[in-house]
Amino acid sequence: MDQEQPMKHVHDTVRELNAQEAASHDQSTTPNAHTNAVAHQKDAVGVQGIQSSPLVSRTDQRGEITIGEALEATALTAGHRPVDYSDAAAIQAAEVRATGRTNIVPGGVAAAAQSAATRNARLPNDEEKTKLGEILSDASSKLPSDKPVTRRDAEGVIGAELRNDPNLCTRPGGVAASVAAAARLNQTNASNNNQNKTN
Asked: Considering only Cβ atoms within 10 Å of each terminal Cβ, which end of the chain, N or C, has fewer?
């Protein structure tokens, strides 16, 4: 299996799960928007979509999906979109959770995202703006350490993206959606492995 094939599986799975989210995404800005968005993120990566996913066989072969791989999946699903402050905050939350550090790694993926968001805010023309794909395409190699995505990691990334979005929502195909999808896949894979061991 070449290196591009596993990422294609991640891309296909995230696209499928994000299509489910887009169908049920709540654009509300009520005080419960944070709770609603987190609930929708969890629903968007439901077990039915995962069981039919080609990523299940990939995780059986390679183990769990890491935070870096989830960020790279975002480059595939939303790479054309300009980086904004909510993206930068979600990427920073993901990097902090991957590395275990409380500060941004100089020259790392979060520093690049923050710089891009600041630059993009000043540019009127979208064609000139730095895109998510430019920042996240090789995120795994930019992280000094990486780890499998957990549900707690996903909740932290979702919260960071929500807090920094003017409409208090996450984006289909965005950083939070990709990390949430990876966390759900890891959780399902772990449950399946535990069931296989007990049988």
From this structure: C
